[in-house]
Amino acid sequence: MEVVGNEALAPLEKLKNDFSKGFQYYLDRSTPHVMHRWLGTLGGAAIYLLRVYFVQGFYIVTYGLGIYILNLLIGFLSPKVDPELELMDGAALPTKETDEFRPFIRRLPEFKFWYSISKALGVAFLMTFFSVFDVPVFWPILLCYWLVLAFLTMKRQIMHMIKYRYVPFTVGKQKYGDKMRSPTSRGL
C-alpha cells in the first residue's frame, strides 16, 4: 500500500517542482527590472489599500503590514556590518575622513526587500477575504501609534547614518565633467 501512496504523490511532487522552477525562472528574470518590479508592487499596494478602504475594516492587518514594512526598511537602510553591534574585521564603515572608502553593503539587499514586501502585501490581501482577521479597532489610534513609531525609528536610523557617515543610496555610477579632466585626457 505504501507504494501506491508514493505513486500518488509523485505527480503532485513533480507538479510542485515544475511550478517552483517556473516561478524561480521568472523571479530571476525580473531581477534587473528594478523600476518595473517596484511599480508592480506599488500597484499591488494601491489595490490592497482600496480593498481596505471599501471594506472599511482589516485595520489591524494593515497595521501589522505597516510594522513589518517598517522593519524591512530598517534592514534595507542598515549596513551589513554595524559598527555598534559587531567586532571590526576590517570590513567596517569609515568613521573618519582619513579612513579608506568602503562600499555600502546593505543588511537586506534591494531584491529581498522588494520580494518580502510583495509577499507581505499578497498575504495581507488574502487575509482581507476572511472575517476572522477583521478585528474591530479604532483605526486613528493605530495610525497615530504607527506614525510615532515610524518617526522614532527613522530618527534613530538617521542619527546612526550621521554618526557613522554613510548614505545607503546610490543613484548610479559617478560621472565626471570637463572640469575634472586633465588637459591630456582631452587631447590637448
In terms of topology, how is this protein built?
Layout: H1 2-30, H2 34-55, H3 59-77, H4 110-127, H5 139-164
GO cellular component, one term: Golgi membrane
Function: Involved in the retrieval of endoplasmic reticulum membrane proteins from the early Golgi compartment.
Subcellular location: Membrane
Keywords, separated by commas or semicolons:
188 residues, mainly alpha, 61% helix
The chain-level structural class is: mainly alpha
Beta-strand content = under 5%
Distance between the termini: 86 Å
State Rg: 24 Å
Shape: globular
Low-confidence sequence ranges: none
H and E string: HHHHH
* Mean pLDDT over the residues: 83
Q: Into which percent range does the helicity of residues fall?
A: 55-70%
* DSSP strand tally: 0
**Biggest beta sheet summary:** none
Treating each run of at least 4 consecutive H or I residues as one helix, how many helices? 5
Family: Belongs to the RER1 family.
Subcellular location: Membrane
Protein name: Protein RER1
Membrane topology: Multi-pass membrane protein
What does this 3D model show about the protein?
The structure is a single chain. This protein has 188 residues and is mainly alpha-helical. It has a domain at 58-169. Helix content is 61%, strand content 0%. The chain is built from five helices and no strands. The chain has helices at residues 2-30, 34-55, 59-77, 110-127, 139-164. Helix 3 packs antiparallel against helix 4. It is globular and about 65 Å long. The termini are far apart. Involved in the retrieval of endoplasmic reticulum membrane proteins from the early Golgi compartment.
